Fold this protein.
Amino acid sequence: MPSSPCYTLGLDCSTQTLSLMVINATENELVYFDSVNFETDLSQYGTKAGSVSSEQNPAEVFSFPAMWLEALDLLFAKTAKLFDLKKISAISGSGQQHAGVYLDSSFNERLARLDARKTLAEQISGAFTRTQVPIWMDTSTSAQCEKITQALGQDGVLERSGSIAIERFTGPQIRKFAEHSPQDYERTHLIHLNSSFMCSVLAGQSAPIDHADGAGMNLANIHTWRWDSDLLDATVRGLAQKLPTLAPSDTCVGTIAPYFCEKYGLCPSTKIIAFTGDNPSSLVGTGAVLQGRATISLGTSDTLIYATRAANPMPDRHVLGGPAGGYMTLICFRNGSLARERLKNELGVDWNFFDKTAFENYTPQDDNALCLPFYFDEISPKLRSSTPVFENMDGANSAQKVRTFIEGQFFNMYVQCAQSWEQAPQTIVLTGGASKSGGIARTIANIFGAQVARLKLTDNSAALGAAMRAAHAACAIPMERLVETFCTLEPPLLPNKDITKLYAKKIDAFIRARKRHYGV
Ligand code: XUL
């Protein structure tokens, strides 16, 4: 154990916010947390919850790398006033997965000469060959996915990259850019992910893409952890030249750029550890790097993640590199909190009603009421939808609608994963805004037949995971010890066996209804 304190800083650049957390890993303390909200704190970008949809094609959804840079300056400025950043030994971070950042040949030089009297956005934005970039909510690349699949076969793409060709993944998005904007594509010298881009800015040099986030591109080979030449050729010929290197998640990229030392008082020896995706980071921050735990994150999207030893790719799931070694499985559901918010608004109820009142004194009944809860095109399974379907619910009140909608969301999640996992988890850790909802937690416990608990220390498991990874890589603190200290759980909710049995019947009805309405 190191004798001097190990303060580490974790950043999470997610869809809606940039968050910053400081932990003192030697004293087992969470020391500081703050965040910047893209929609409200950077309203000049006109985003709704951090993204904008294209008017011509709602399947296209974008965000702005310049906005992420502005958020980084804002957040460090706020933090520097309240916390002595000189104490920080190492920084790591995470970002929303799949979003590419497209840069011209001036990027490296711009990073090398960052001037603390100016802002990051002012100095770096000139390198963007796309000012708005497609993010994970974008489902507009079906044609490109088809071409990639034709070239290698569905299994060929799956076996190599850990996923079948997926619309939001960076490779198909890059292909679309190359096809639709060939000149801007030509000018593009380097394509980073959100995570490796933010890491590069902090390190003042182009950073590698880590194995976990890199697997969300349909370009990396998950067995060799190199860019796969067949996948690259099937995407865009010559793409290899435009990609950073791939590296394990615990790689030390270098030390912090002088810009941050001069402006915010960080120490020049602060180590920068490779950034990763928000889901891999949450796997660490919830302690699900250990076997037997799975994590459901109830955020803009709902995601289910768990660690595995072997890769074992299957078409309905994504295999990523494990942020602490091995592999992890991820299933992402686009109809998460934004869909819950739509229903809440349509019913004219508040979150307290939605999370609590609607579930008071509720025991699920053996009836035919059910809901296919899709306000948006779903990615798991792939289906097109703009409104939920309520079946056998004529005359239902708001409370019944809320409950049936929530049951539908987690029936869908259960169906997407349970048929194919090797070993069902005994504990599910819930994170994200909606994890506070007792009604949702109970529903999940009963559907999955597992105990469900939230983290005691924080809601932001991605930022915590980043700070933990920094402590592990820079101060050599064992991951098991970090999990033991920082990922303690609140008292769990236990499943009710009779309700789990009843839900199994309802899940069969859900599968039939989903097939009837959407063909999947
Ligand atoms: C995962 C995914 C989302 C984003 C959200 O594949 O697309 O969970 O990472 O930030």
